[in-house]
Structure formats: C-alpha cells, structure tokens
Amino acid sequence: MMDISVVIPAYNEEESIHELAGWITKICTANNISFEIIFIDDGSSDSTWKRITAAASVNDCIKGFRFRRNYGKAAALHTGFGAASGNVVITMDADLQDSPDEIPGLLKMITDDGCDVVSGWKKKRYDPFIKRITSKFYNRSARIVSGIDLHDFNCGIKAYRCDVVKSIEVYGEMHRYIPMLAKEAGFSKIGEKIVRHNPRKYGVTKYGIDRFIKGYLDLLTISFITRFGKSPMHLFGFAGTLVFMAGFVMAGYLGISKMHFVAQGMKAPLVTDSPWFYIALTAMIIGSLFFLTGFLGELVSRNSSERNSYLIRDMVNA
Asked: What pLDDT, on a 0 to 100 scale, did the predictor assign at position 215?
C-alpha cells in the first residue's frame, strides 16, 4: 500500500494541471514518499480533461475521473476518496493556491503524531477583503456549532487517515464539514497545520458570494444530521412538547377563568374574544405538527439502510 493519495478536484483549471502534477511528483520523490495523484474533472468546459489525460500518459502515478457535468466539489471528493488506495489521503485544490510543499508535514502529523484528520489553516490569505471577513464570521460560527477548534474549515488542503475517508459520505456541499463528519464517525483526533496560501496564478475563482449563504445552511444541516440523524423524535418531540404544553396551559387558563366567572354568577366574556385563545390554539396545532414531523422522521430513519451502520474499530477472535 502506498504512502499517500492526493485527491484533486478540478473545474476549468487547464493552465495548472501539468504544473501541479509536476510539483507534487517532485516533492514526493524528494522525500521518498510513494504516491498517487487522483484528478477529478468536475465537468470542465475547457481543456482540463485533455491536460489530465496527457499527464497520465507520461506518469503512471496519475489517475483521472471525468464527470459528465459539474456536480460540485463534494461529489468530486467522494469519487476521489472511493478510488484512493494510500495510507493517507491528502486533498488540495487545483488552482495552485494550495502548496504541495505542505505534503511531508501533513503526512508526518498523521503517521507520527497520530492525528486522524489534519486541516490546513491559511493564516495569511491572498483573498479579497470581503472574502476574508466573511470567512472569519463563518469559521467562528462553525467552531461554536461543531465544538472543533479549527480556524479554517474550508481550507482545501487537508490530510486524512485512509479509514476516515472510507467511513464517511460526502455529498451536497458537505465538503466544508468533513472534520465534523469525521468526529461524528468516531475519529476525534483532529489537528491543524498552518499552510502557505499562494496568490492565484491562473484563471479566476469559481465561487461567488452565494458560497457563504450555502455554507451557513449546510452548517445547520450537518449539525442536525450529526446530532439527531438517527433519532429525529428527540428534537421534534421535545420541541412539540414545549409548544403544545404552552398552548395547553394558556387554553386551561382561559377555561378556568370562564368557570370562575360562571361560579361567581358574573357575565363571562367569550373565550373567543381573547387573543390568547387563538395563540393557544395555534401553539397546540404547531406542537402537534412537530410531533407528526418527529414520527415521520422516525419512520424514515427506521427504514434507512444506514440506521444500524456502526463503525467497528477493532475485533478479536471474531
């Protein structure tokens, strides 16, 4: 089994393919690291695939996969993880902003320091001001929600123990939260390494401002999945109980008030004249809907093939 697999998603990065492949080869050869490079062409419309096939024709260590259309970085990483055969899997972007010089250090943190995951931290970034500011807010939110002390969740260069990437599923836009997925799967030793961030040499960025909106939505999604994916009733049942009981208490108060007026022989106001009646009714309906959502979530979960999918770390005499 080789030392590392370098997984590189590429979308319209024709200018950088040969340079990046040569750079990785040079670094790995100089450090006696056995390696393979896995390029995933994510539906490029330029000559990216032609450059990948040309590089693979002269270097047996290079593999390539080509999507029929642009599916996104998560899909590309998932394909690369499935094809990887190295003891350590390293990911990086194809735009040359991630430096292959970091490979030996990342490998050492996995093999010698015992980390399951090592995430890069672009402490000094060559990005526009607005991108740096929004990234800080985003990373701070991700640290609070995940409980993982990383400064740069979205850094493209990361290293993983092979069984980490074989044990998780990356889909949608979840590539930003692979450390969270790894932690949920039981790989809790997550390290961080300051890495060099190079100015973009070719082409233009493929991401717009919408990446930050999607990032926060995905953060909510992954937070819910990791905490309540196998027991949705724990969330919806609890919320439904609180809301339903609040409505029930308000309705009970209105009913007791009505009975008090009647017992005193006083003319009681109509219950339906009080705004609290409609608030109580709405709360009880919403609480019931929360319960129903929880029941439906449990039905889906119980019929999922992943419900009893657990990761076994070690076995003996089995």
From this structure: 67
CATH code of the domain in which 164 resides: 3.90.550.10
Number of domains within the chain: 2
Secondary structure element (H or E) that encloses residue 18, with its range: helix 17-30
- Indicate the SS3 state at residue 9: strand
What span, in angstroms and rounded, lies between the C-alpha atoms of 73 and 82? 14
Task: Provide the percentage of residues in the chain whose pLDDT is more than 90.
Answer: 43
Q: List the Cα angle 89/94/95 in 5-degree steps.
A: 140
Within-domain flag for 104: yes
Is the domain of 106 the same as that of 174?
yes
Rounded-to-integer distance, Cα 185 and Cα 147, Å:
15
**Residue 172 placed within a domain:** yes
For residue 144, what are the domain limits?
Answer: 4-228
The reported pLDDT for the residue numbered 311 is: 47
| Residue 192 counted as domain residue | yes
Looking at residue 310, its pLDDT comes to 45
Which segments in the chain show pLDDT lower than 50?
308, 310-317
Cα distances (Å, whole numbers) of residue 56 to 4, 22, 39, 62 = 17, 11, 10, 5
Is 317 inside any structural domain? Answer: no
What DSSP string describes 192-260? Answer: EEE--BPPP-SS--S--THHHHHHHHHHHHHHHHHHHSS-THHHHHHHHHHHHHHHHHHHHHHHHHHHH
**Predicted model pTM:** 0.73
The Cα 89–Cα 8 span in angstroms is: 11
Q: What is the DSSP letter of 7?
A: E
Read off the pLDDT of residues 81-138 as tens digits, 9 standing for 90 and up: 999 999 999 999 998 989 999 999 999 999 999 999 999 998 887 666 666 777 787 7
Q: Which two tokens stand for residue 191?
A: 């390290």
Tell me the one-letter amino acid at 106. L
Other CB atoms closer than 10 Å to residue 276's CB: what's the count? 14
The pLDDT value given to residue 305: 56
Which pLDDT does position 123 carry in this prediction? 83
